[in-house]
Design a protein that fits this description.
Blueprint (H helix, E strand, L loop, with lengths): L6 H4 L6 H15 L1 H7 L3 H8 L14 H14 L3 H10 L1 H7 L13 H13 L2 H12 L17
């Protein structure tokens, strides 16, 4: 007669290699410069402040509201064109983790104009003052010398 085994006893022996690999990618992402950048942005709060919503009519969007904000931060960070950003997003797992999306290799994003559409959507709803207040309140614990105002003279 076969012995009944508790699932908690066999769990470590089950082969979930896809999950193990993904977990290794997440760990390397968190240790990378891109992961550190991701950790300092309140993407959910920023998406809410921009008035972005998941609920709308039509085809389901691949990007959640926070993923749209993250995509724009990633674009500014990398300096890529829209086309280059989509190409790198399709092939770079760290970029996908940054945006909180998973793109299957069999279904890559082919329309690079989606980046422009997302940028226009955010721009049409953006209230820069509320964003500035949100980021300032989020970053305030990390800032020293709040009474000092510095300006880079090379911008004039």
């Amino acid at each position: 007669m076969a012995k009944i085994v508790n699932i908690s006893e066999i769990h470590p022996t089950l082969g979930f290699t896809e999950f193990d690999i993904l977990e290794k990618y997440r760990k390397s992402f968190n240790e990378s410069e891109l992961g550190k950048l991701h950790s300092v942005f309140p993407f959910e709060c920023m998406a809410k402040a921009a008035g972005l919503s998941d609920r709308r009519l039509g085809r389901r969007n691949r990007f959640s509201p926070s993923a749209k904000i993250a995509l724009m931060v990633l674009k500014a960070y990398t300096g890529f064109s829209d086309r280059q950003l989509v190409e790198h997003l399709n092939g770079n797992i760290h970029y996908q983790i940054f945006c909180g999306i998973m793109i299957p290799p069999s279904l890559p994003i082919t329309n690079f104009k989606i980046v422009s559409a997302i940028r226009n959507e955010i721009a049409s709803r953006l209230d820069i003052d509320s964003f500035q207040e949100l980021l300032a309140s989020h970053w305030k614990p990390y800032l020293d010398n709040l009474h000092v105002c510095m300006t880079d003279a090379t911008c004039y």
